[in-house]
Every structure is written in structure tokens, then in C-alpha cells.
Amino acid sequence: MRRKSEVEANYNKRFAQREKRRKIMQNSLTGGYNAGSVGQVGHIPRYLPRIQKLKESKKETKKKEMVKMKGVSNFEMSEEDAEKAYKEYLEAVKTRKEQYLEDLKKVYFNLKQGRKVIDIFQAMENAGLNEKGEPRLAISRAGFPNVFFVKGAVGSGSFGNNMNSWNKYLDDKAIEQVALPSKTFPNWKVGEPNQFGNTDILGKVLKTKIPLVPAHLLPKGKLENYYLLWEVKDWEELPETKDPFLLRRLSNNLFVILAEWDLTAIEQAVIRGTK
Predict the structure, then answer these.
(1) Which are the contacts of 182, defined by CB distance < 8 A and separation ≥ 6?
(2) How many C-beta neighbours within 10 Å does residue 268 have?
(3) Considering the domain boundaries, does residue 21 fall inside one?
(4) Which residue range forms the structural domain that includes residue 238?
(5) Are 126 and 273 in contact (CB under 8 A)?
(6) What is the largest CA-CA distance in the chain?
(7) What residues are paired with 74 via a beta bridge?
(8) pLDDT averaged over the chain?
(9) What pLDDT does 86 receive?
(10) Which residues pair with 256 in a beta bridge?
(11) 197-209 as b/e: b if 16+ CB within 10 A
(12) I want to staple 241 with a disulfide (CB 3.0 to 4.6 A). Which of 126, 159, 263, 270 is the partner?
């Protein structure tokens, strides 16, 4: 009888020690989570609070990963909602040929992949002009040494790389250009009227050099199929060493960000030597 009581006492002691260790482990995983409100001790979802904390930390990380460039913001949409929308447009383009359906399919495809999609028209308008009345941002096809900006009527303008085919800047189908609509910027300053009473936009054509894409960020295929977006410190000079973006075009005004980086001193030197 005595031996039986000793066995029971030892068992109870070991059980109590085991329970104590389990609660210590539980608290370390859950941050002091009160399991009593969930159900029986033996059925505690120990990792639930920790998973919730991980989800919250991921949300905080995503918030920190918003686009970091003056005037530029990306569309916000959960990957789950983007997945649903993508499937809808994927079905729609099987029987319809409207271009906007194809554009939206591409947009939602990139959003469901967790990529950042931006509206270049809105970005240019938000960023505005510098103190000299020049665009703060520039966009260009990658793989070219220079980009030109041509001021247009009613605050419009175009970015392009080919000065020899200037008439293409007014053609929306010109593959190398990005044409901004009217009222993107304030009306450009004009000079004095000529003998016929006509006025010309002052400093109508601007030029700047284009950042280089580092080797580890080079995309697949031809570099000319991609675009670069960056902050221009001063037109006719080197681009400012601040977070250029590598983009792929989705539609007339929507682009997906593929990479961003800082230009190094060596890359700056190479750019300085380009013609």
C-alpha cells in the first residue's frame, strides 16, 4: 500500500513538472497567451498567437516596402483579391478583344505576384517640377545613353530617345516614347510673341543621361524592352544617385517595378563618359 502511494506520488510529481515545462514552453512561443479562453488545456492552439504576430510583422514589412520616390505611389491590393480579379480577366480575354481587358489582366497578374504597379501619369503630376520649371522625374527605355523631354501644349510633354525621328514624339504608337497628357504639369512658360504674334515654349527640349542597370539586376531579353524611372537632379547633367527603378510597361500609363537600386560612383563615372 505504501509502495503504491509512493508510485502515485512520484507520478504526480513528474506530471506536475511536465505540465510546468509545457506551460513555460507555451508562454515562450505565445508571448504569455492565455489559453484558458480557447478550450481545454490539451487542445491549446499553441502557435496561433505566434502565427498572428508573424502575419502582423509581414503586414508591417509590406507597409515599409511602399515605393520610395517623390510623387510615386503604387496601387495597393491584396494578393488574394488580385488573384481573383486576374482569373476574371483571364476568362474575359478568351472571348473579347478589347485592349483594356488585356491591360487589366497584365496588371492583376503582377499584383497577385506581389509586385508594385504604378501610374506614370499620376507619378509625373504628383512629383511636379523643380525650381527651374523642369520635370523632377524622367522615364526612358533602358539601354540608351540619353533621354529627351519635349514640352507640349497645356502642360503636356513626351520622353524619348531618338532625336532624329522627332515627329514620332507626337505619335502614341511610337514604341520608344512616353507621352504625358495635357495638364500633367502647369502651362509651360513662353517667350515674347514674334512678328506674327506667335509664342514658343521656353526651353522646349531638355536632355539628361540615363542610369545604368547593374549586372545582378539585368532582366531577361533585350534591355530596350524595359524602362527606367529616376529623379533628375539637373537636366543636361548626371542623374542623381537616388533609387532608380527598372520598369516593364503594362499599358500606355501603367508600369510594374522590377527592381530599384542606388548608382555607385563607378557607374556614375561610366555614365559621365557616355555620349
Answers:
(1) 152, 153, 154, 155, 156
(2) 15
(3) no
(4) 120-273
(5) no
(6) 124
(7) 118
(8) 76
(9) 95
(10) 117, 248
(11) eeeebeeeebebb
(12) 263
Residue 65 and residue 182: Cα distance in Å, rounded?
A: 31
Which strand ranges, in their side-by-side order, compose the sheet holding 227-231? Answer: 116-119, 254-260, 245-249, 227-231, 137-141
Q: Distance between CA atoms of 254 and 102, rounded to whole angstroms?
A: 13
| Element holding 86 (H helix, E strand) | helix 79-92
Does a structural domain hold residue 145? yes
Higher pLDDT, 116 or 193: 116
For 69-156, where are the E strands, in sequence order?
116-119, 137-141, 146-151
Contact in structure between 267 and 212 (CB atoms under 8 Å)? yes
Q: Are strands 205-209 and 227-231 parallel, antiparallel or unpaired?
A: unpaired
Instruction: Report d(CA 50, CA 59) in Å as an integer.
Output: 14
The total number of structural domains that make up the chain: 1
Has residue 60 got a pLDDT over 90? no
Retrieve residue 120's grid coordinates.
506614370
Name the grid cell of 148.
529627351
Task: Give the position of cell 515599409.
Answer: 64
49, part of any domain: no
